[in-house]
Design brief:
The protein has two helices and no strands. With about 50 residues, the chain is mainly alpha-helical. It is globular, with a radius of gyration of 10 Å.
Length: about 50
């Protein structure tokens, strides 16, 4: 099963298909970010991890 690379919480394969970046990393999930902001937090964390 897929997991969040930020908090290590398990997420569904469906969640991973939608929110994983192009390398397959999941930078945010409902466990570590607000549901309404998952996409935004994920983009911010992906950007920060590239710096």
């Amino acid at each position: 099963m897929a997991k969040c690379d930020h908090c290590d919480a398990h997420v569904s394969d469906r969640f991973a298909r939608v929110f994983a970046d192009e390398t397959g990393q999941i930078h945010a999930c409902p466990n570590c970010s607000a549901n309404a902001g998952i996409a935004e937090v994920s983009r911010e964390r992906a950007y920060e991890s590239r710096l």
